[in-house]
Structures are given as C-alpha cells and as structure tokens.
Specification:
9 helices, mainly alpha, single chain, about 300 residues, elongated
Length: about 300
Amino acid sequence: MIVQRTIRLSDHIKVDGGNVLFFIAYGCLVCILHLIFTIEYLAFPISEINVLGIAVAILLGFRNNEAYNRYWEARSAWGDLTNASRNFAAQITGYVQPPQKQEHASPDVTGIHSELIYRHLAFLNALRLQLRQEVSWEELTPFLSDQEFQALSKAANKATLLNQWQSRRLQELYRSGWIERQAYIFGLMESIKAFFAAQGVCERIKTTPLPRQYGLFTKAFVWIFVLLLPLGLVQQLGWVTLPISVILSTIFTVTEHIGSRTEEPFSREPEDVAMLSICRNIEIDLRQQLGESSIPTPLEVKDGVLM
C-alpha cells in the first residue's frame, strides 16, 4: 500500500517513462510530416476525436471505479478480520477457563489461551500467503507446533484447515467443561464463522478478476485515442501539438494504468492491501491481550510503501 502523499518523479518515470518517450517521438513525427512535408491527409477531424475522448473518459471512469471497489472490499475484509481477531482474543481469555470442579492439579490456562491465539495468528498469515501465492510457509513456524506444521504442509487450503483445527479444539474444550454453552455457541463459534466469511470474500476477489473485456477494450480504446489525438491537434495548433498531446496522452494512459494495478489487491504490488502490516498489527494486539511482554514492533514504511 502506497502511504506517501506524493509519488516521486523517479517512480513515475520507472513505470510510465517509456510511454512518455513514445508520445514525444510520435508527436514529433506527426508534426514533422504534417508541417514540414505538408502531408495533409494525416490530419484528422478534431470533433470526432473529442467524441472519442469523452467516450474513453467515461469508460475509464467506470473501469477505475470498479477496480477501486474491489480494492476497498478487500481492505474491508481485512478490517473485519482485525476487529474479529481482537474480539476472538478477548473471548478466549474471558470464556476459556478451567472447570470449577477440577479435581486434578491446576491446568495451564495460559498455555491453552496461547495455543488458540497463536493458531489464529497462523490462520491470518496462512491466508495472507495464499492470497499472494507465496511458496514458502516458514513464517508459520512460530505459531504452530512441529506436528501441526508438518500436517499443514500437505493441505491444499491451509487457512481453511487451520480454522477447522481451531473449531475442533474449541469443541474439545467445550465438551471438557472449559467453555460455557452460551459462550461456545454464540461467542466463539460466531467468531470462527466471521473468519470463514472474511476468508471467502478475499478468495472470491482473488479468484474472480474484473472481467477481462473491461481491461482489454479500455486499454485498446485509450491507445486508439492517444494515437489519433496528435492528428486532430496538428492542423489547429501546429508545433504546440507536441506538448499538448504528450500531456493529454499521459493523463489517459496513467489513469488506465492506475485502474489495471488497483483491480488486483493481492498481487504483491505496491498498491496492494498491506496484509503483512495488518497481520503484524493483529499479532501485536493479540499478544498484548495474552499479557506477553515480548511484543514485535509494527512494520516500517519502506520507500513510501507499506506491505
């Protein structure tokens, strides 16, 4: 996620510099052919280009709006995961307590709380890794036992399996008298349901891209417009066509580029949802709720980007 208020010129040149150079060269070519070699048929009616520009602008606006809606839905899903995770940790520390008629030695209550909360942290990070299609899962080792980590390596959907394990463990504790019926059914299991729901939203966004025809035809129409633009301006503006066409063409192509990069919020790009930072912030909150003293620090912004 880009968090700096301004985008450096070097970043813009790195991404769109090739297009700007093309527009300069193309504009020069049109001006030279029309004004020096007087090739009149290169001119194009400006009125038709105006109509095309309006149509392209409307299409760009629609496409970019839908792309941002996808991004915001993805961010909202992780916001829901953040809120539900904090609530889940409060439920764990408040609802999961040893039975009052415990005949054996005092059980390790803190250990059970840590087991449940750490497994949930593993779920969050597994979901993040799945959405970004990472190939290494070593980041989950601090949150799981060796046995669980080995069993998890064989799973197709690791986040789902972790949530399923969590559900079974809560059921075991409920049957053992560690959780009251109301707290189990209407508290903890509702949290598990919320985790599955947020995961489903993220997976739907990841596996269902914005219809390709929007991206394909929007880009094609933008480039048709920017290629015709100098042909329409040159007969009225002369050499002034060059800077005007470069500026307008860059505006349209950059706007199209913004939409294409925004529509995939889980693709490991600077514009993505900052899932790693969100997971770290949740970890900090939950470990504080456990009463731990050794807490990791929030991620820092690097080059204006928070991952």
